[in-house]
Amino acid sequence: MSEPSPADGPLVPISCRVERAVWEAIEARLEGSNGSLDDLVNSALADYLQVGRSTLYQLSTAGALVEGIYRGEMTVARLRGHGDLGLGTFEGLDGEMVVVDGHFYQVRSDGMVSEVADGVSSPYAVLTKFDPGVPTPLSNCSSLADLEGELDRLRTSDNLFYAIRVDGVFSSVRTRAVPRTADGVPLVQAAASQPEFHLADVRGTIVGFWSPAYFKTLTVPGYHLHFLNEDRNAGGHLLDCAGRELVARIERESNLRLTLPHTGAFLDADFARDSSDDLRRAETAPGGHADA
Known about the structure:
Low-confidence stretches: 288-292
Shape: globular
Keywords: Acetoin biosynthesis, Decarboxylase, Lyase
GO molecular function: acetolactate decarboxylase activity
Largest sheet: 7 strands, mixed
Distance between the termini: 50 Å
Protein name: Alpha-acetolactate decarboxylase
Radius of gyration: 21 Å
Catalytic activity: (2S)-2-acetolactate + H(+) = (R)-acetoin + CO2
Pfam family, one: AAL_decarboxy
CATH superfamily: Hypothetical protein, similar to alpha- acetolactate decarboxylase, domain 2
Strand order of the largest sheet: 6-5-4-3-8-1-14
Oligomer: single chain
């Protein structure tokens, strides 16, 4: 493909081949419409590539994790195309995923943090191509509840998703990281043995999402936040924090793209029961203590 020329203006000419079925679908869509082929192709590609869209991408569901479905469904290499900020976990529930500035980090249950290779796979991840508005200074927060209250002021609706990043100095941070767990072991059982980490006087970044309550069978409702320190050697699922000099960046997400697993475990699972209480217990479960 040749490099675009400034003379092309905002539209760049491209040439490609498509399957006949795709072309027939294009012709059918254009028939009787006032739109052009350029408009249709631009719209379709922009939607697929999430260009100019406030889109949250999710791999699998929180309910699948609750039921112990931990087999990796997508590699980090593929996940990179869906966002540069996010969170999740890895195959076998092996620790916490923290995605900051397009870098994928793994916080393991022994407290070790490493940047993840492209070939590593994930059973669950939530990502976005983060394009926030103006940074907003926050009041000093003595607890996670205080921080969530500050973030609540920045949200304009309880019915849309929000991507969140908070940077600053933290006098205390409490995190956890789930241990590697066999497929089929319920999440609440796995979380019962998770280690907890206590950090003091660290500069770092909180990333995560706020999701509406009516999506509780698909996502973690309310705030779901992970933490990574500036040195990139400590972090995890955020349980509590106190901080100052905090600056929040927030983006409202009005589009959701969901990829569901095709494994036998997922296809045969019974998701009819309300697992929200199990999810809440797993997300807030206390664990053993470790200083970092």
